[in-house]
Structures are given as structure tokens and as C-alpha cells.
Amino acid sequence: MLTPSSDKQVFPSLEFIGWYTVAPKPTARHIAYHEQFTGYCSTPLLLVLQPSLSLPGGSDINAQSLPFKAYEPTVEIKERTSRSVFIEVPYNVETGEAERIAVDWTAKGGGSGTSLESHLQTQRSAVKMLHERILLLVKYVADVVAGTTKKDHDVLRSLAALVASLPASENKAFREEFDTEYEDVQLTAFLSSLTKSTNILNDLVDKHLVLTANREDRGGPRRRMGRQGTMPEWGDRLHG
């Protein structure tokens, strides 16, 4: 039940502009509901959430990819009779960086998995978002240089200040630290691969010893001899 007076007290800075529902598309029933909101707003908007809508894939970072549509009421006159109908209206989504990263993380199932996996997914989303913003800035500067976009001196000054605030990446100290960290990462990956290979080889030796011992117990022929013509003992296994 709507209580505009209490809502106004809780949210004094907000105005009622419309309502929302979950449906594939607006129907006559929604028009009947919509008339109840005209007492609070002369032309309320209708936001239809469409969770079953299949979103088109693409690389356009400016494309709308949210499963909902906005409608506004209008009066259609047909055959000398008028009726209320909904027409779709365009909209823009304005969100902060933290909101977009959080929504993207949640949509991809960020709540499941280990804490490390969740942390890495968050970092990946942040880096992806930063990369998209850098591409937009580069495209804007390229369009300004080419003369296809109007020059905005405030934006250009902000870009110049941003570039000037970045730390210099081409100096000896930075390069030495970067090379050291890169070598440490590569060495860690190599040791991890070596340890995994050693464990696999150790398991293979264990299986071979068990198989050979079973054949020896059954009086079968020896297919492989140990050191100095004897069967290998358990102490001769390879340990990593």
C-alpha cells in the first residue's frame, strides 16, 4: 500500500516518478494498475524487469546490457476511440565504478568459491573496468586530434593533470624492481611445475613397485630388475 506522506518523511530528497513490475511486456492489467499511480505523479514511468530476456553478446562497452525496459503512458486514438497504451522510451544508466564492479562480480557468481578466488575476480573486474575507461579516453583524444569530436578544454586539462600525476615507469629503479618481481614469479611457477612432475613420477614408481611385487609373489617372470640384478626395495623409490 502506498503511503506518500511516510515515504516523503523517510526519503525527503526523492520524488515519486514511477513504478516497476516483472513481466515480459506491459499488458492491459498493467494499464489498470498504472492509473492508480497518477494521483502521485501526472505521468509516472513504468519499469518492466525482464529476467528471462536473452542479452545479445558484443564488445561494445557502451551498449545497454540490463534486462529491463522503460515505458511511459500515452493515449492512442484509433477508429474514433481512445485508449491508454505504453510506449518504450530510451534511458541511460549512471553508476559509479564501485557499483559496476559489484554488479558485475555478483552477476558472475562472485559469492561462491574461495576467498582467494573472489578476491582475484574482484581484481580482474577492476582491471577490466580501468582498461575500458582508458580505451574511451584514448578514443576521445584520437577523435579530437582527427577533428571529428569537439574539443573540450576542461576535459583535456583533466587528462593532462591525470597523465602528469602518474609515476614515471621508465626509470632504472622501477625497471630493476619489476624485473626482480617478474623473475620471482617465473621461478615460483617453475618450482611448482617441477614439484608436480616429481610427485607424478613418484606415484608412477610406487605403482611399478606394487605391480612387480605382485607378479613376483605369483611366481611370474621378472620384467625389470633392480640394482645389481635384484628387485628394487621400497627405500629405492624416488622422493621429491
From TrEMBL:
Record key words, sorted: Cytoplasm, Nucleus, Signalosome
Pfam family, one: MitMem_reg
Protein name in UniProt: COP9 signalosome complex subunit 6
Residue numbers spanned by region Disordered: 216-240
Organism field: Candolleomyces aberdarensis
GO cellular component: COP9 signalosome; cytoplasm
UniProt function note: Component of the COP9 signalosome complex (CSN), a complex involved in various cellular and developmental processes.
Residue ranges constituting the EIF3F/CSN6-like C-terminal domain according to the UniProt record: 97-206
Domain of life of the organism encoding this protein: Eukaryota
One GO term of the biological process aspect: protein deneddylation
Subcellular localization: Cytoplasm; Nucleus
Protein's UniProt keywords contain Nucleotide-binding: no
Family note: Belongs to the peptidase M67A family. CSN6 subfamily.
Signal peptide annotation: none
